[in-house]
Write a structure and sequence with these properties.
With about 210 residues, this protein is an all-alpha fold. The chain has one domain. Helix content is about 70%, strand content about 0%. It contains nine helices and no strands. The protein has helices spanning about 10-30, 35-65, 65-70, 70-95, 105-130, 135, 165-170, 170-180, 180-210. Helix 1 runs antiparallel to helix 9 and helix 2 (about 35-65) runs antiparallel to helix 4. The radius of gyration is 18 Å and the shape is globular.
């Protein structure tokens, strides 16, 4: 691809998948008895806000450097990490309010949480140690030097090229499991599925342009 992907490239699939995931989340929430609506839908809304923000910021930057001209790169990073961190805070709040709804004994909750948290923590360490948090936030859309960096094959990246989406997002599942929250698990499933929608609808078309020379 020799020209940047337009704003709408991949987004029909994005919003169709989002509508399906929202419908499934709503159905599951109703099945659970509509627990804690404010906390539940905030935990759903934050991933949507985060990923729509990233889609717009990346595509507008590639097209005309509009994100740099308005927010600046540091401003973009501030919004990115604020929204990203808020996702974990929201599911933590929901899972605490909904604690015990799975009906599992506490040892089972803790074992399940640990099994999920260990690869997630290793993925987080690998991203910070070998990849870099700024690069993970999409720095290659803003600064060409990031596009010249070699592929990372250390840490979690020895096992997969996409350690962030495969393993790091298990941390959301771990939070829900730690509190034994059924509503938290619904949000975890939504969030983990939706990040893959972002990958196929937004990130992959962008990568084809950014790394066309490779």
């Amino acid at each position: 691809m020799t020209t940047p992907p337009g704003l709408s490239v991949g987004q029909l699939g994005h919003f169709v998948c989002l509508a399906v995931l929202l419908a499934l989340a709503h159905t599951a929430w109703r099945y659970l008895g509509e627990p804690f609506p404010a906390a539940f839908w905030l935990a759903i809304a934050l991933p949507v806000a985060h990923q729509i923000f990233v889609w717009l910021a990346w595509r507008l930057e590639l097209a005309r450097s509009a994100t740099s001209a308005t927010l600046g790169f540091r401003g973009y990073l501030a919004v990115f990490f604020l929204l990203f961190g808020s996702r974990f805070v929201a599911i933590l709040w929901l899972s605490w309010l909904d604690r015990g709804s799975l009906g599992l004994p506490l040892p089972a909750q803790l074992v399940g949480a640990a099994l999920l948290a260990l690869p997630a923590l290793y993925a987080g360490y690998s991203v910070g140690r070998y990849f870099g948090m700024v690069r993970a936030a999409g720095a290659d859309h803003f600064e060409p030097r990031y596009r010249e960096m070699p592929l990372v094959k250390d840490g979690i990246f020895r096992f997969t090229h996409n350690g962030m989406y495969v393993y790091a997002f298990l941390g959301i599942w771990a939070i829900a499991f730690a509190f034994g929250s059924a509503a938290g698990l619904v949000v975890a499933a939504f969030s983990h599925a939706y990040i893959w929608v972002h990958f196929f609808a937004t990130e992959r078309p962008d990568m084809r342009f950014l790394y066309a020379s490779r």
